[in-house]
TrEMBL record:
The protein, known as: Response regulator receiver domain-containing protein
One BP annotation, GO: regulation of DNA-templated transcription
SUPFAM superfamilies: CheY-like (SSF52172), Homeodomain-like (SSF46689), P-loop containing nucleoside triphosphate hydrolases (SSF52540)
Annotated ranges, domain Sigma-54 factor interaction: 145-374
Origin species: Desulfonauticus submarinus
Pfam assignment, any one: Response_reg
UniProt-listed CDD domains: AAA (cd00009)
Keyword Ribosomal protein attached: no
4-aspartylphosphate: residues bearing it: D55
Annotated ranges, domain Response regulatory: 5-120
Keywords: ATP-binding, Nucleotide-binding, Phosphoprotein, Transcription, Transcription regulation, Two-component regulatory system
Molecular functions per Gene Ontology: ATP binding; sequence-specific DNA binding
Length: 466
């Protein structure tokens, strides 16, 4: 873990030594010192700081001048001013100029430590906000794929890597995880982006029609074939064809697709000649194709032709840290479409969202957000606006009032998650993230406690001292 840095600027060497010694221990951070404004600017040009503490009265460059110089180059910097008791007017002027806070001399160690702790927290929040803004901008380049979790960042890296090639990609994942968005992102970042992207939802097209749709047909090939028809593979020439839910196609279509992948040619129904096609193939499925192969329902040779580059999308329950970002994205997107902007979720509804397992994944979350936008009469979307009617029991927290609305198994799991997060959170906080000591304190074996923590996605890292 990178330790945070504080720069203290004061013309009194003894005070600097005292503050450095006491604050490094209290705040567990690195303290840099400077005896003048010029020295402080030199340090800031070489090192990044989280907080700067500046004395108002210094010979040469004043604290107020230094504040203004710093904010010109570092507008997000968190700056705290030190001033003598009789110079409150100057401190107020500093606040108006962009300082975060001020303290008056003389001060005790506890007061300055508390003030700087708040300043560090503010710096962390600003840093996280800037990071999220950057990540959101990155997400938009992936056409509505939103998320900053490690699993999604890995997906973005894969998309960017495979997009520069023509290699066949197989996207797997549960329904509602966004397989179609990944396919479109690969196409939009590829050299084929100016040519067609043709999506085929395989399960929705009957087998006897799917073949003619994919490969086309010649006039007279069958009854009602009164003219030639170009197939979807030809429509996608020089572009990309996306075969959505390919695990549902018949054995006959599987055989013909295999030939297309091997030979890069198609044969329209009723034609004796083959036609060359230049098409990048991306397929997706929510099925376990390896299991389907064992059952004789999917060709093994076709599977290996498709599965050159696999991309497996995580279900939403495995990246719950992305839920607030997704909610904000859907609120903005659909709020504008439905002419009901500026909607937000109530804290208790967000809590429910974070606890839910989302069996329908991102699509289910999006649909519920749309429902909330439509039915919330005011700006705040509450549980009752999406069909959850809480009991008004003042003795339990608002989100637990919603438990009777849930099926038994979900309600039980919800309560267990709440219990373990509260109980183990307190336990780990008391032991500074020491799992062995936490297990000893609660009467469990260390391995048993680790299994519980893994099940409920609880880690010791946030509770360890920096």
């Amino acid at each position: 873990m990178v330790r945070e840095r504080i720069l203290i600027v004061d013309d009194e060497p003894d005070l600097l030594r005292l503050l450095k010694r006491s604050l490094e221990e209290d705040l567990q951070c690195i303290i840099e010192t400077a005896l003048s404004g010029e020295e402080a600017l030199n340090i800031l040009s070489q090192k990044s700081m989280d907080v700067v503490l500046i004395d108002m009265k210094m010979p040469g460059m004043s604290g107020l001048e230094l504040l203004q110089f710093i904010l010109e180059d570092h507008p997000w910097m968190t700056i705290v001013m030190m001033t003598a008791h009789g110079c409150i007017e100057l401190a107020v002027e500093a606040i108006k100029s962009g300082a975060y806070d001020f303290i008056t001399k003389p001060f005790d160690t506890e007061t300055i430590s508390f003030t700087l702790q708040k300043a560090l927290e503010r710096s962390r929040l600003l840093r996280e906000n800037l990071r999220l803004q950057k990540d959101i901008r990155t997400c938009t380049s992936f056409q509505d794929i939103v998320g900053t979790s490690p699993k999604m960042k890995r997906i973005y890296e894969l998309i960017q890597t495979v997009a520069t090639t023509d290699i066949t990609v197989l996207i797997t994942g549960e329904s509602g995880t966004g397989k179609d968005l990944v396919a479109r992102a690969i196409h939009s970042l590829s050299k084929r982006k100016d040519f067609p992207f043709v999506a085929v939802n395989c399960p929705t097209v009957p087998e006897h029609i799917l073949e003619s749709e994919l490969f086309g047909y010649k006039k007279g090939a069958f009854t009602h074939a009164t003219q030639n028809k170009i197939g979807l593979f030809q429509e996608a020439h020089k572009g990309t064809i996306f075969l959505d839910e390919i695990g549902d196609i018949s054995a006959n279509i599987q055989t013909k697709l295999l030939r297309v992948l091997q030979e890069k040619t198609i044969k329209p129904l009723g034609d004796t000649k083959t036609i060359s096609v230049d098409v990048r193939v991306i397929a997706s499925t929510n099925r376990n194709l390896q299991e389907a192969i064992k059952q004789g329902k999917f060709r093994e040779d076709l599977y290996y032709r498709l599965n050159v580059i696999p991309i497996e999308l995580p279900p939403l329950r495995e990246r719950k840290e992305d839920i607030p970002l997704l909610v904000n994205h859907f609120l903005k997107k659909h709020g504008q479409e439905l002419n009901r902007p500026n909607k937000r979720l109530s804290p208790e509804l967000m809590e429910i969202f974070l606890e839910n397992d989302w069996e329908g994944n991102v699509r289910e979350l999006e649909n519920i957000v749309i429902r909330g936008i439509l039915f919330a009469p005011e700006e705040e979307i509450r549980p009752e606006h999406i069909g959850l009617k809480p009991y008004k029991n003042p003795n339990i927290s608002p989100e637990l009032n919603l438990i009777p609305n849930l099926p038994y198994k979900k309600a039980k799991e919800y309560i267990l998650k709440k219990f373990h997060k509260l109980y183990l959170g307190k336990l780990l906080k008391e032991t500074g993230g020491n799992v062995t000591q936490a297990a000893r304190n609660c009467g469990l074996e260390r391995q048993a406690l680790q299994q519980i923590m893994k099940r409920y996605n609880i880690t010791a890292k946030p509770f360890r001292k920096k």
